[in-house]
Amino acid sequence: MAGKIDELLVRRVAQLARLELSDQEIVQFSMQLSAIVNYIEKLNELNTDEVEPLAHCLPICNVFRSDEVLPSLTQERALANAPDAENGYFKVPKVLENGGGA
Amino acid sequence: MMKMSDSYTIVVGLEIHIHLATRSKMFCSCELVYGQPPNTRVCPVCLGMPGTLPVMNKTAVEYAVLTAMALRCQIAPLTKWDRKSYYYPDLPKNYQISQYDLPIGSSGYIEISQEDGGTKKIRIRRAHLEEDAGKNIHDAGGYTAVDLNRAGAPLLEIVTEPDMNSPVEVRALAEELRRIVRFLGVSEGDMQKGHMRFEPNINLHIQRNGQVFKTPITEVKNLNSFRALERSIAYEARRQYEEFLEIGRTLQMGNKKTFGWDDEQEITVLQREKEEAHDYRYFPEPDLVPVRLTPEWLAEIESRLCELPLAMERRFQREYGLSRYDAGVLTAERATAEFFEQTMRLGAEPKRVCNFLTQAGLKIANELSVPIDRLRITPETLAKLAQMVESGLVSTTAANLVFEQIAREGGEPEVIVREKNLLQSSDGGQIEVLAEAVIAEQPQAVRDVVEENKKAKKALGFLMGQIIQKAGGQVNPKLVSQILQQKLNALKGKP
Ligand SMILES: [Zn+2]
Question: Does domain B428-492 sit in CATH 3.90.640.10?
Answer without folding.
Answer: no
